[in-house]
Automatic annotation (TrEMBL), chain A:
Keywords of this entry: FAD, Flavoprotein, Oxidoreductase
Protein name listed in UniProt: Acyl-CoA dehydrogenase family protein
Keyword Flavoprotein: yes
Acyl-CoA oxidase/dehydrogenase middle domain location: 132-226
Domain Acyl-CoA dehydrogenase/oxidase C-terminal: 286-383
UniProt xrefs under Pfam families: Acyl-CoA_dh_1, Acyl-CoA_dh_M, Acyl-CoA_dh_N
Domain Acyl-CoA dehydrogenase/oxidase N-terminal, chain residue ranges per copy: 16-128
Cofactor(s) listed in the protein's UniProt record: FAD
InterPro entries, per the entry: Acyl-CoA_DH_CS, Acyl-CoA_Oxase/DH_mid-dom, Acyl-CoA_Oxase/DH_mid-dom_sf, AcylCo_DH-like_C, AcylCo_DH/oxidase_C, AcylCoA_DH/ox_N, AcylCoA_DH/ox_N_sf, AcylCoA_DH/oxidase_NM_dom_sf
Keyword Oxidoreductase belongs to the record: yes
Listed PANTHER family: ACYL-COA DEHYDROGENASE (PTHR43292), ACYL-COA DEHYDROGENASE FADE34 (PTHR43292:SF4)
Recorded family membership: Belongs to the acyl-CoA dehydrogenase family.
TrEMBL record, chain B:
Domain Acyl-CoA dehydrogenase/oxidase C-terminal: 202-320
Protein name per UniProt: Acyl-CoA dehydrogenase family protein
Keyword Isomerase in record: no
Family note: Belongs to the acyl-CoA dehydrogenase family.
Stored SUPFAM superfamilies: Acyl-CoA dehydrogenase C-terminal domain-like, Acyl-CoA dehydrogenase NM domain-like
Organism per entry: Marinobacter aromaticivorans
Assigned keywords, A-Z: FAD, Flavoprotein, Oxidoreductase
Acyl-CoA dehydrogenase/oxidase N-terminal domain mapped to chain residues: 4-70
Length: 386, 363
């Protein structure tokens, strides 16, 4: 019998990572103090502020792992990890650039043309260029391989027709990475014939419409492509390789700290409120949550270390996301015991308002980026069940 | 991990695999003491992993010992290797002699320790481990807030033998003005709370090892067992239970590994220093919570087979159910962790202030 064993090594954290963390922390503290931003829960999805993103760009805190020639700073994944953690726990409005920094930028770096790298990456790093993900469609969610958006070859490029749904932040973005069918559908090879494109959202034939979510934020979008033309060099990666690219892109984004820290800001405030008069029962509830966060963080950092060592810890990353997103939801459910959530924004009180916003946003935690049911399937297959 | 550590772990693994199959574990509970196994462990020197070379031991790192403990638990080793390791470590740390063939029982259960007054020890230890058959009983005692280690010949003290849920020996020992055969000088930096935290991590590592085995058993079982013409593992309901098991087990692994790393970096492992509380409590909380979740899913996936004595799952379930209570269950450590963070934030002159929870949690 094979055995299922994981190990989560400690990443090598040198002084420069700690220095950077301190610097980011101090900057954010000052921003909050001076009214630069108001902390929000689930900030990497609900907090949009392009000006703030530009400020971070000026600080040099976006795209830090990319090569200098493309606007990056050649720093390690752990430098980026520290920055993102600090932004999350401060509730900073980082959604505008989040996807480009985490996902699209690295994708362009790995698969993009030299032009894309030279023109777009420095703009992302400057906090001026934002990218949306065009994966889901009205008829394709978990079953992503069934996308119907088509790209047809025309002279000098491609014509894209179809609808992408739920794309986060698209209205603020200049580009969208679009997964489209370029080859005939083959029931035996469902994953073949898909290609990724980098589409400027101001192309003729593209319309973006905001969709209000249940928390009242117009955060995701519906994007129509009506024979929208893109030139040949808008192909991102290789024609027909879209599925492989998308799955490895998704695998990489599963284990970051945003998969367990989305609601940390609420926990922090709750702790501040009750620290002085904390009773034994409250302490036990907080303690149990904090322990789980610590353990998940060790796991998530372990995945970062494994990636750094050149491994591909796919199951481990899926585990972080499955456990972490459920914890983010649990935190709110458990805090309700002490702070019932009844009013839309409390009574204008900052903490109550963070609580109610968290509750209204939490259904999305276990959906976005691939549902937990799908993740569990990946985990089960990973340990040999299929 | 160092290469020599890995060699020792590999040797131990072979020894356990050779001499500790599921039947041995079940037989041990039916009064057939696994003498051969225990003897082989002594001869291999494994019980001395934490004893310095100068004192005749292996001189292994803290990480080596904790890994050994985790591995032993994944075999449901029916002999008290983990607690003997700790007892020997206490002897070595306090400057008392340790001998290779010496079976040291640990008379410490995380509750109050006996007191020492004018050379005499008095008090009760409710759940000493490994006492029947031991050649020496090791007991931390307290004299004016200072911890010393005392040893007794089993014949010299009053013992009442009981068993844990898993059939592991847990003895009630009454010290009534008993005169120790050896008494150490005060042990530098050692506190009762520090000992308790250390032992909580030992149990957490045991739980981690047992959960790994439960994961393997369950994955193996649902691949083999067919119903409705398919392996159980094809059913999504079962797959999701497996994913839950794998997740909780992996999280426990991550929690104990971070604690072992923190402890290894600390000069005194039994100090009970406040900066050790977070990592150690985290390990025991996560492990104890996982014990319940994993066993529930594993038993469900196993059907009636997992409920039988003959099938090995129950040996692990019963072990983790007793280990999660020993040296403080999740409720106890959660309360302490929560209080520690709260007082870290609100204590006067603390620089944690706003953002203090994160400051403490991310250390
Ligand atoms: C806040 C938010 C942001 C998002 N941002 C983006 C974005 O930027 N770009 C983008 O492309 N998409 C985005 N999405 C969409 C997201 O990727 C999809 O919601 C997700 O992939 C699930 O698809 P669906 O909503 O169509 O649900 P469905 O696939 O219809 O699933 C509904 C339910 O059925 C379950 N289910 C489906 N298939 C199976 C199966 N085989 N086995 C068991 N259960 C199954 C699911 O787990 C789920 O519980 C976002 C979603 C949210 C909530």
């Amino acid at each position: 019998m094979e055995s299922v064993r994981f190990s989560f090594p400690a990443p090598e954290i040198d002084e420069s990572v700690d220095e950077l963390r301190k610097e980011v922390r101090a900057f954010l503290k000052e921003e909050v103090r001076s009214g630069g931003f108001i902390p929000v829960t689930d900030c990497w999805c609900a907090g949009v502020d392009p000006d703030f993103s530009r400020k971070l760009g000026q600080k040099g805190w976006i795209g830090v792992t990319w090569p200098r020639q493309y606007g990056g700073r050649d720093l390690s994944a752990l430098h980026r990890y520290a920055i993102t953690e600090e932004l999350l726990v401060a509730g900073a409005p980082v959604h505008a650039h989040w996807i480009a920094d985490r996902q699209s930028g690295p994708l362009i770096l790995a698969k993009g043309t030299e032009d894309m790298k030279r023109n777009i990456l420095p703009q992302i790093a400057a906090g001026k260029c934002f990218i949306a993900l065009g994966l889901s469609e009205p008829e394709s969610g978990s079953d992503l391989a069934s996308v119907r958006t088509r790209a047809a070859r025309v002279e000098g490029g491609w014509e894209i027709t179809g609808t992408k749904l739920w794309s986060s932040g698209a209205r603020h973005c200049q580009y969208m990475t679009v997964l489209a069918r370029t080859g005939e559908r083959d029931p035996d090879k469902r994953h073949a014939g898909l290609t990724q494109f980098l589409v400027p959202l101001d192309s003729p034939g593209v319309t973006v419409r905001g969709i209000r979510d249940m928390s009242g934020v117009e955060h995701f979008n519906e994007t129509h492509f009506e024979s929208a033309f893109v030139p040949d060099d808008a192909v991102l990666g290789a024609v027909g390789e879209g599925w492989k690219q998308v799955t490895s892109e998704l695998a990489l984004e599963r284990s970051g700290p945003e998969r367990f820290l989305s609601t940390f800001i609420v926990l922090e405030k709750a702790m501040q409120h009750s620290a002085a008069g904390m009773n034994g029962h409250q302490a036990a509830v907080f303690g149990s949550i904090l322990a789980r966060i610590r353990a998940l963080r060790a796991m998530s950092l372990g995945v970062a270390a494994l990636l750094d060592q050149g491994h591909s810890p796919e199951i481990e990353a899926a585990l972080v996301k499955d456990l972490g997103t459920r914890l983010e939801q649990d935190i709110i459910e458990r805090l309700r015991e002490f702070w019932p959530i009844q009013m839309k924004q409390g009574y204008g009180d900052e903490f109550q308002s963070l609580m109610s916003d968290s509750l209204l946003r939490q259904p999305s935690f276990t959906l976005r980026g691939g549902t937990n049911e799908v993740l569990r399937g990946i985990i089960a297959r990973g340990v040999g069940l299929n | 991990m160092e290469q020599t550590d890995q060699l020792i772990l590999d040797t131990a693994h072979r020894l356990f695999a050779d001499q500790c199959d599921a039947e041995t574990v079940n037989r041990a509970e039916n009064c057939e003491t696994p003498d051969r196994l225990w003897q082989a462990i002594f001869e291999s020197g494994l019980t001395l992993a934490w004893v310095p070379e100068a004192a005749g031991g292996v001189g292994g790192s803290l990480a080596l010992g904790f890994n050994l403990i985790r591995q032993a638990a994944s075999f449901a080793l029916p002999v008290p290797l983990a607690d003997t390791l700790v007892a020997n470590l206490l002897l070595a740390k306090s400057g008392l002699s340790v001998s290779a063939g010496c079976w040291a029982a640990m008379a410490f259960d995380g509750h109050e320790v006996p007191s020492l007054l004018q050379g005499e020890v008095s008090g009760v230890v409710e759940a000493a481990s490994g006492a029947p058959g031991a050649t020496v009983v090791v007991v931390p005692v307290l004299e004016k807030e200072v911890v010393r280690i005392a040893t007794f010949a089993p014949s010299a003290i009053d013992m009442e033998h009981h068993e844990s849920l898993a059939g592991e020996a847990r003895s009630r020992i009454i010290f009534d003005s008993a005169i120790p055969s050896q008494l150490s000088a005060p042990v530098d930096g050692m506190t009762v709370d520090g000992l308790k935290q250390f032992c909580a991590l030992v149990r957490a590592c045991q739980i981690a090892g047992a959960l790994e085995k439960i994961t393997d058993l369950t994955v193996g079982y649902v691949r083999e067992r067919h119903q409705f013409g398919r392996p159980l593992g094809k059913f999504q309901a079962i797959q999701h239970k497996i994913a839950d098991i794998v997740g909780e087990s992996a999280l426990t692994g991550a929690a104990v590994e971070q604690a072992v790393r923190k402890l290894s970096a600390h000069p005194v492992p039994f100090s009970g220093d406040s900066d050790m509380l977070l990592p150690l409590a985290t390990a025991k909380i996560v492990a104890s919570e996982a014990a319940g979740r994993v066993t529930r899913n594993a038993h469900q996936a196993h059907g009636a087979m997992g409920f039988s004595f003959e099938y090995p799952l129950q040996q692990y379930s019963r072990r983790v159910w007793s280990w999660r209570e020993e040296f403080g269950p999740e409720f106890y450590w959660s309360g302490r962790l929560g209080m520690a963070v709260a007082s870290g934030i609100s204590s006067h002159g603390s620089n944690h202030g706003d953002g203090g929870t994160w400051d403490l949690v991310s250390q």
